[in-house]
Write a structure and sequence with these properties.
Elements lengths: L1 E6 L6 H4 L1 E5 L6 E2 L4 E4 L4 E3 L4 E2 L3 E6 H4 L6 E8 L5 E10 L4 E5 L5 E6 L17 E5 L11 H31 L1
Antiparallel strand pairs: 1-2, 1-10, 2-7, 3-6, 4-5, 4-8, 7-12, 8-9, 10-11
Amino acid sequence: MIIYEFLPNPVGKDTDGEWIKLFNDANAAVDLGGWQIKDASGKTFSFKQVTINSGEYLTFDYKITKISLNNNGETLFLYDASGDLVDKAEYVGSAAEGKSLIRQNDGRFIFAGQAAMGETGIAATQNTAVVQDVGNLSGPLNKTNFNFTNLFVGFSLALALSFVFVFIFKKFNLLLESE
């Protein structure tokens, strides 16, 4: 289990957009019950009974964790149910607004592309903000998680708007022809 990505300085109000993403890099499911995330100030979030399958990501936003991430350097610690340190994620300097820090294969964290929850440069998640299972990904950490649900919703919305446009256009043409 690793801290995979986090967003310390979202565009807008920090408490409305900050989040932390975990990745299960183990070969088996992990029950996070009793696990904890702590930040540099000692603020702690304790997990309830949440299972994350092998190769899956879970995203936790500020509304869940109540951990306010620092915009000028931060360290996050992940502890298992026994209290053993499992992972550590940190950065120094100023966090770029709207960009998440994402773990590279060598363990370093770098700023990714725009990170409005769901649009990171490497691994997309669902749009909002409860504990979320974002799908089973196999393979290396840099594999992209393509979200077919969002694609379907977007396509359906575009199709519906097209029908509304055609309907309005035809009605408008009929009114012009009758004058």
